[in-house]
């Protein structure tokens, strides 16, 4: 269980990136949703012990993370939004280097590296420098290094960025499997991925958690009140305006049918997220 209490972080220029955040995350996959600049990466970097908060506390399975960051680091896998790699080192060499830093026993490291290369579909190119990789291949290397050492807490900041649909699907299957015994904190702008993969989610805006919990419970207040229309509605609250086959499509929140042509829809996490975005002052 990850437990965050009253966490605050203000940068030197006065930006309050995290504002009194409290959150409980049990084992499983937890989604972190929020618009650009909401503070998601700041929160994840803080949880990964890469920057200290100004105040607050973090515990993971009984470890006081801020007092004992090394105890967390040995159980942590972290994929940042962007990362650098040593030039000229191959993917395999880099994974061995990281395995050494994580103090993984040599036999276990050999086994894990072979498995992770296969799971991330990098075995064929494992001896090429990571700097020569395409964006998606590089991202898959990032995922492999995050999973090295069998971590009990995995933080993934936009893990599917740059992945083609097949690789994205492979990663999803892997994450669902891993999260049966591991806490996976997943931040992505693809709301559908969070709805499909996670049992719980937290919505973050302007440095604050505005709602969190089981995804079914987050969506429940919109249930039976979401309608889809091909024209701008005259009543109700517009949740989102999008396109399908190039044609306008509005999703509307209203307690009763807003127009004879409106189609009743199952409420989604995306509806819930847009509903929240519309409520918050920007
Ligand atoms: N090192 C820094 N110094 C000053 N301000 C920062 C720093 N890092 C982030 N910020 C600011 O903190 C706020 C939160 O940024 P953060 O990167 O955590 O948001 P985010 O939710 O991850 O955004 P995105 O979805 O765009 O990645 C933003 O206003 C950002 O400009």
TrEMBL record:
GO terms for molecular function: ATP binding; ATP hydrolysis activity. PROSITE patterns: ABC_TRANSPORTER_1, ABC_TRANSPORTER_2. Gene3D superfamilies: P-loop containing nucleotide triphosphate hydrolases. Coiled coil: none annotated. It comes from the Bacteria. Keywords: ATP-binding, Nucleotide-binding, Transport. Residues 2-231 form the ABC transporter domain. InterPro entries: AAA+_ATPase, ABC_transporter-like_ATP-bd, ABC_transporter-like_CS, P-loop_NTPase. The keyword Signal does not apply. PANTHER family: ABC TRANSPORTER, ATP-BINDING PROTEIN (PTHR43335:SF2). Belongs to the ABC transporter superfamily. This is ATP-binding cassette domain-containing protein. It comes from Alteromonas profundi.
């Amino acid at each position: 269980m990850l437990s965050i209490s009253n966490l605050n972080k203000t940068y030197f220029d006065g930006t309050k990136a995290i504002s009194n955040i409290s959150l409980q995350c049990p084992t499983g996959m937890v989604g972190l949703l929020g618009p650009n600049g909401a503070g998601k990466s700041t929160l994840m970097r803080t949880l990964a012990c890469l920057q200290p908060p100004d105040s607050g506390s973090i515990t993971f399975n009984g470890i006081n993370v801020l007092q004992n960051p090394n105890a967390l680091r040995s159980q942590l896998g972290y994929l940042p939004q962007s990362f650098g790699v040593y030039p000229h080192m191959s993917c395999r060499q880099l994974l061995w280097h990281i395995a050494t830093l994580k103090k993984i026993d040599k036999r276990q490291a050999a086994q894990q590296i072979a498995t992770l290369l296969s799971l991330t579909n990098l075995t064929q190119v494992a001896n090429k420098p990571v700097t020569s990789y395409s964006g998606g291949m590089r991202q898959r290397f990032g995922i492999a290094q995050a999973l090295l050492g069998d971590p009990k807490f995995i933080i993934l900041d936009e893990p599917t960025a740059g992945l083609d649909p097949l690789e994205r699907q492979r990663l999803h299957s892997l994450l669902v499997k891993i999260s049966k015994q591991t806490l996976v904190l997943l931040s992505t702008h693809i709301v559908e991925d969070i709805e499909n993969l996670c049992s719980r989610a937290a919505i973050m805006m302007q440095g604050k958690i505005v709602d969190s919990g089981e995804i079914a419970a987050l969506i429940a207040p919109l249930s039976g009140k979401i309608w889809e229309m091909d024209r701008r509605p005259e009543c109700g609250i517009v949740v989102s305006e999008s396109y399908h086959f190039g044609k306008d499509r509005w999703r509307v929140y209203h307690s009763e049918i807003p127009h004879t042509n409106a189609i009743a829809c199952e409420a989604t996490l995306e509806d819930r997220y847009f509903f929240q975005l519309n409520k918050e002052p920007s």
